[in-house]
Amino acid sequence: MKNIFLSTILSFALFSSYAMFAEEVDVAKNPPSSSYYIILYKNYSANLDLTYNGYTVTNSKGNTDSSGQADVNFWTIPGKNEIKLKITPRKIKDKKEDLSDKRVSVRLFIGQQGQFPDEGIEFSNFEWKEGEGSDLPLEKTIEFTPPFLPPSNLWKLAEKIEWNRESQQSALEFVDSFSKALNSKDIKKIYPFIEFRGKDTSEARYFPYNPEEEKKALEGMIKSIGSTWKLDKKNIQFGTICNGLIGTLTTAKGNDILTAKKGAALPLNLGKIAGKWVIVR
Predict the structure, then answer these.
(1) 195 in Cβ contact with 259 (< 8 Å)
(2) Smaller CB count within 10 Å for the chain: N or C?
């Protein structure tokens, strides 16, 4: 079990000339209810690194073919949004490996509850195939303004994050306090750290927020993990995503710095609201 996901703090689930915005006008006038921005991606015989407003949807660390989907409501922001992709040649490890039929697909849909991802409105589509497009490596940035936003108080309250010695130190003090609260196994100490995130992400995904259910989930996590959380304070990489409104703390390789037994790990995505750090995603 690589990660243990609480519904409160750990549930993560989620061009170019080919961009198709023909549907945008209709969607803007009549946005569907309970809608989700969903990215579908595929890459065969070539590597794909894909981000949505800085949030990593998929990367080429595995050096293998992949296909998947990501609900990106959490990361859709007011104003200009960016999908960035980088396609690179696959490193050949086995001479017998077949790297023909190199192709990549990245599609953005707007879907509703109860639909399969590709049953929604296709808002944008990028396709690359060897011999029919640019040579590799290839980088693309797709910019768009969403016709509507998923509900979220974060974008109304968040201050833009500028990392410097002072802000880095205060962020570290905050996450250190959080790790100590986790290791205390005291729900009354842990819950205030995750309350904003629980409420806001529930709203963004149209789920009713139930504090009692979240506390029960906390009890389950405490029972499973206990006081085994460790915060790696060495070589921390401070970054920002979502136009600087969310700060990220990772290792230099992009891994989580707050980990525990059984392979559990907590992403540290922070916002600054009224001058104070808050776990937001």
Answers:
(1) no
(2) N
Q: Dump pLDDT digits (tens) for 124-180.
A: 999 999 988 788 999 999 999 999 999 999 999 999 999 999 999 999 999 999 999
Residue identified by tokens 């130190």 is 169
For residue 261, pLDDT over 70 is answered with yes
Within 8 A by CB and 6+ apart from 228, the residues are 183, 260, 261
Q: How far is 129 from 244, CA to CA, in rounded Å? A: 33
Q: How far is CA 87 from CA 16, 67, 84, 121, 268, in A?
A: 14, 14, 10, 25, 28
Instruction: Name 86's bridge partners.
Output: 49, 139
3-state secondary structure at position 94 = coil
Q: Which pair of structure tokens corresponds to residue 216? A: 């029960």
Q: Is 260 exposed, middle or buried (0-12, 13-18, 19+ CB in 10 A)?
A: buried
Q: How far apart are CA 278 and CA 271, in angstroms?
A: 5
pTM of the predicted model, to two decimals?
0.86
Given a contact cutoff of 8 angstroms between Cβ atoms, the answer to whether 182 and 190 are in contact is yes
Query: Rounded CA gap, 75 and 240, in Å?
Result: 12
State in Å, rounded, how far the first CA of the chain is from the last one: 21
**Contact present, 255 and 56 (Cβ < 8 Å):** no
